[in-house]
Amino acid sequence: MARVLTAKGAATRRRILEGAAELLRRNGTAGVSLELICQTTGSSKSQLFHYFPDGRAELFCAIARFEADRVISDQQPHIEDLSTAESWRAWRAAVIARYVEIGRYCPVNALVVELSRTGPEAEGIVLDMQSRWHTLMTQAVGRLQAAGGGCRHVEPEAAASVVLAAVQGGASIYQATGDFVHLERALDGVLSYVGVA
C-alpha cells in the first residue's frame, strides 16, 4: 500500500526526484551516485532512504515514471486534439519550444538509453510510455483523417511510429550536437507525411 505523504514530504520527494532526473540526463546512470544526488538536492542520506527505501533501484524506477509522465504531459494539450492542420502545427511548435526550454538533456533519451537498462521494472515503465505515446499518436492521426484532413492513404498506426521515431531521432541528434535543425526537419517531415504541411 502506497504511503500518504504530507505536503512538505511530497515536496521534498519531488525535489529529490527532479534533481536526480536532471543529474541522470546530464551524466547517465553510471555518473549518478546517491552521494551526488544528496549533494545536488540538499538532502541527507536518511531523507533519500525515507522516500526511496530500496535506494538506487527504487529511485531509478521513480525517475523512469517521472520522465515517462513528462514525455506525454509535455505534448499536452495538443496531443489530445490533433484533428486539424493548425493543431498539428501547434503540436510541432510546442515540441520545439519544450526542447528549447529543457536544453540538450532529453527525457525520452534518458528513458530509452539509460533508465530502461537499470532493471526489468524500469524497462517496463519505458515500454509502457512508448506504448501510450504510440496509441495517442495513432488516435491523433485517426482523428485528423476522420475530420477529412491529412493523407487518406497513411495508416494511423504507421504514422504514429514515424512520429515517435522523428521526435526521438531528432532529439538524439540535438542532444549530441546542440543543433535544432534536425529535430525541426524531422517534425516537418512528420507534418508532410500525415498531410498537414
Automatic annotation (TrEMBL):
* Pfam families xrefs: TetR_C_13, TetR_N
Which SUPFAM superfamilies does its entry note? Homeodomain-like, Tetracyclin repressor-like, C-terminal domain
HTH tetR-type domain residues are: 10-70
Which GO molecular function annotations are given, in alphabetical order?
DNA binding
Keywords, alphabetical:
DNA-binding, Transcription, Transcription regulation
Database matches in PROSITE patterns: HTH_TETR_2
Is the Transcription keyword given for this protein?
yes
- Provide the residue ranges listed under DNA-binding region in this record: 33-52
- Going by the entry's taxonomy, the superkingdom of the source organism is recorded as Bacteria
- Determine if Ion transport is one of this entry's keywords: no
Q: Which residues form a coiled coil?
A: none
The record's section on PANTHER family has: HTH-TYPE TRANSCRIPTIONAL REGULATOR LMRA, TRANSCRIPTIONAL REGULATORY PROTEIN
Name the chain's protein.
TetR family transcriptional regulator
- Source organism (scientific name): Pseudonocardia sulfidoxydans NBRC 16205
